[in-house]
From TrEMBL:
Protein name in the entry: Sarcosine oxidase subunit gamma
Origin: domain of life: Bacteria
One Pfam family cited in the UniProt record for this chain: SoxG
Length: 197
């Protein structure tokens, strides 16, 4: 018998509520899940030959400055630690991306783990995006210290997230949140957004 498993996003149930809050805000906010983005955790020596090979295979350099992100096409590499990155790609490219990184690393000391099922991504955009996130995030979200090219592992409403500003200020933010906390975070975002609708 064929496998008939259906994949469900952690926040599929919140799509209608996100859409309603977006409409009610009059364009000041947009909340949406970006389901099934591929997320591959990479650990390796940034000065070793495996790092150079992985960068070449991805067409993307691994950022070496703390709390930075590099984008190239539909992929991003987020700095998580001195020897750790999260490579984010489009839905459906999980096996290809992880294999490409493993093959490039070759025999070098590297750990490559597909963590796509561990997290989902929430997009928060609009004129009030920073104000909304400031309600529950301890970081200074002003574009000067935390603008494009930055990322941070932080908390939002006590939930651990990876926060990534997306391009110019109106492009908003990605919130990468563990699937087990996604429902809680969606409820918090919708409650906090009620101030702007």
């Amino acid at each position: 018998m064929a496998d008939t498993a259906i994949r469900h996003s952690p926040l599929g149930h919140a799509a209608d509520r996100f859409a309603a809050a977006t409409r009610a805000s009059g364009g000041d906010l947009r909340l949406a899940e970006l389901p099934f983005l591929v997320q591959v955790n990479v650990r390796l020596d940034p000065k070793g030959p495996a790092a150079d090979a992985v960068e070449l295979a991805l067409g993307l350099r691994l950022p070496l400055e703390p709390n930075t992100v590099v984008h190239a096409g539909d992929r991003s590499a987020l700095w998580l630690g001195p020897d750790e990155w999260l490579v984010v790609g489009p839905p459906g490219s999980s096996a290809d991306l992880a294999h490409r990184i493993r093959d490039a690393a070759g025999e070098g000391h590297a750990a490559v783990t597909d963590v796509s099922a561990q997290r989902t991504t929430v997009l928060v955009t609009g004129r009030r995006a920073r104000d909304l996130l400031a309600h529950g995030c301890p970081l200074d979200l002003h574009p000067r210290p935390f603008g494009p090219g930055r990322c941070a592992q932080t908390t939002l409403a006590r939930a651990q997230v990876v926060l990534v500003p997306r391009g110019e200020p109106r492009a908003g933010f990605w919130l990468l949140v563990r699937s087990s906390f996604a429902g809680y975070l969606a409820d918090w975002l919708l409650d906090a957004a009620s101030e702007y609708v």
